[in-house]
């Protein structure tokens, strides 16, 4: 049975049989419906950006700005992956930036794995700054009384800074020397469409930063880009019927329903005993460790949903949980959807390299996840 079909069965059967009580089902729909709409809309935005050549254009500009210096090129890849994750979400970075960076590695004669591993790390660890950067953030944003960005900007920057330092320490040996840029690279299908697309993405970034409602904002962005693409008669890279990720949305909805059903039958009490209570540094560290382990065992989204009641009404505990499940799922291949998508894209596009060496991925995660999470939690505890 395809995973999406199994997910559809879960979404229908659990509420229909009463295993998920009707009141809980209605509350779940009210909380998660806008999140699923955003997931669909922002994926369309990302696909239309790719079709307009935005990612290729930014990567090509980065290669020229680097002026033959691999270390500078890597730094610009860091900027690209971070910006994509913050504005368009971590899954966009995994799906659309990974192949662009692998193509850039081929054009510059650079080892592809360090660049690809940088994208993998930042797709997760850079996903704390805005609500739209990660579905977990969207699910939690309404609980931040003073505003999501006002609370999370400091731990997000701490996690990002540690990530960059650790990546440089791990891969610096492969980033020395100079390169010669081979070929002219892809050309955009329509330069006016490229400029319109860049302007729309910039406006979306501002809208998300000031925390406008994310679902209607993303829908508006998708509508503008779709009209511009049709007006300029540019064929998208992905057929229109395949642009909406309805299968992924069904799987995410099934995770929502499953975890809500478990909570209705006492899962919250069990996890509260494991994650502890309190806002002291030790209490926050305990919650963070539980989140990191759970995310790498089962995936960060169900881990977050399961542990959300353990965060209670405490903003510090909620921020700690987000740091753990966003920056922590770097060790196992299934720890986050972005990690799963990154593995698929690497296998598909690194033809001459074969599949990514598992030990390199695990080693990076074992080193980076504890340090990045510890930095973010320390900032939360000190703030």
Automatic annotation (TrEMBL):
Pfam families listed in its UniProt record: CitMHS
Matching InterPro entries: Arsenical_pump_ArsB, Cit_transptr-like_dom
Gene Ontology biological process terms from the UniProt entry: response to arsenic-containing substance
Primary location recorded for the protein, binned into one broad class: membrane
Topology within the bilayer: Multi-pass membrane protein
GO cellular component, one term: plasma membrane
GO molecular function: arsenite transmembrane transporter activity
Chain ranges of the Citrate transporter-like domain: 2-335
Taxonomy, superkingdom: Bacteria
UniProt keyword Transport, yes or no: yes
UniProt keyword terms in alphabetical order: Arsenical resistance, Cell membrane, Membrane, Transmembrane, Transmembrane helix, Transport
Cellular localization per UniProt: Cell membrane
Transmembrane segments: 35-59, 71-90, 152-171, 192-209, 244-264, 284-308, 320-343, 363-382
Family recorded in the similarity comment: Belongs to the ArsB family.
Protein name: Citrate transporter-like domain-containing protein
Native species: Cellulosimicrobium cellulans F16
């Amino acid at each position: 049975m395809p995973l999406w079909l199994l997910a559809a069965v879960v979404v229908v059967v659990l509420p229909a049989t009463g295993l998920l009580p009707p009141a809980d089902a209605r509350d779940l729909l009210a909380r998660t419906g806008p999140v699923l709409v955003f997931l669909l809309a922002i994926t369309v935005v990302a696909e239309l950006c790719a079709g307009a050549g935005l990612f290729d254009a930014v990567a090509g500009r980065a290669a020229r700005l680097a002026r033959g210096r691999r270390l500078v090129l890597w730094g610009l890849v860091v900027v690209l992956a971070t910006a994509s994750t913050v504005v368009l979400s971590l899954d966009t970075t995994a799906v659309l930036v990974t192949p662009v960076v692998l193509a850039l590695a081929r054009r510059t004669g650079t080892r592809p794995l360090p660049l690809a591993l940088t994208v993998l790390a930042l797709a997760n660890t850079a996903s704390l700054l805005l609500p739209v950067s990660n579905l977990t953030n969207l699910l939690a944003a309404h609980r931040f009384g003073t505003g999501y960005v006002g609370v999370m900007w400091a731990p997000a920057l701490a996690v990002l800074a540690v990530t960059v330092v650790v990546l440089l320490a791990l891969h610096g040996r492969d980033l020395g020397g100079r390169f010669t840029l081979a070929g002219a690279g892809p050309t955009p299908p329509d330069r006016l469409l490229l400029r319109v697309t860049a302007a729309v993405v910039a406006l979306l970034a501002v809208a998300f930063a000031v925390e406008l409602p994310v679902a209607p904002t993303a829908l508006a962005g998708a509508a503008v880009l779709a009209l511009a693409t049709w007006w300029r008669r540019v064929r998208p890279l992905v057929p229109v019927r395949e642009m909406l990720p309805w299968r992924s949305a069904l799987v995410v909805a099934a995770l929502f329903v499953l975890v809500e059903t478990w909570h209705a039958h006492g899962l919250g009490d069990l996890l509260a005993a494991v994650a502890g209570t309190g806002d002291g540094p030790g209490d926050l560290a305990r919650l963070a460790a539980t989140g990191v382990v759970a995310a790498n065992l089962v995936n960060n989204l169900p881990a977050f949903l399961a542990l959300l009641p353990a965060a209670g009404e405490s903003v510090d505990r909620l921020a700690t949980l987000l740091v753990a499940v966003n920056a922590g799922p770097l060790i196992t291949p299934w720890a986050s959807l972005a990690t799963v998508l990154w593995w698929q894209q690497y296998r598909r596009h690194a033809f001459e390299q074969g599949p990514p060496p598992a030990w390199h991925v695990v080693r990076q995660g074992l080193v980076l996840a504890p340090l990045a999470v510890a930095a973010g939690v320390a900032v939360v505890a000190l703030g």
